[in-house]
Amino acid sequence: MIPQLVTVRYRRSDGRRRRLYVPVLPVAVVLSPLLLLAALAGLVACRVFRVSPVGALCGAGQLLWALPGTRFEIEQGPAAVLISVR
Q1: pLDDT value of position 9
Q2: Any residues with CB less than 8 A from the CB of 73 and at least 6 apart, and which?
Q3: Are the C-beta atoms of residues 9 and 86 closer than 8 Å to each other?
Q4: What contacts 76, CB < 8 A, 6 or more positions away?
Q5: pTM (predicted TM-score)
Q6: Residue 2 has what pLDDT?
Q7: Mind listing the pLDDT tens digit for each residue in 23-57?
């Protein structure tokens, strides 16, 4: 299942916590021109490194399929960011 919502929680340097909900589909639609360029760059990279484009696409699909339920936590100094994919 492709993730539908990404929750980003972060703690500001003053200690207050903020939460952002980012819907994946609208962001993907807005960024689709950049995604098209990234896909073309990926095809060129597959050609240069002699990797099967179909195999690379299958690997990317498996990565997206595994994302729901993933949590990333980054702390640097007094600020912290927690990202969870649903």
Answers
A1: 86
A2: 80, 81, 82, 83
A3: no
A4: none
A5: 0.54
A6: 65
A7: 888 988 899 999 899 989 999 999 999 989 999 88
Q: Are 51 and 33 in contact (CB under 8 A)?
A: no
Q: Give pLDDT, residue 61.
A: 83
Q: CA-based angle 36:41:70, to the nearest 5?
A: 75
Residues in the chain: 86
Type of residue found at 22: V
Question: What counts of helices (H) and strands (E) characterise the chain?
Answer: 3, 4
CA distances from residue 40 to 2, 10, 51 in whole angstroms, order as listed: 22, 34, 14
40 φ, ψ (degrees, to nearest 5): -65, -40
- In angstroms, the CA 5 to CA 68 distance is 9
At residue 83, does pLDDT exceed 80?
no
Here the tokens at position 46 are 């597959």
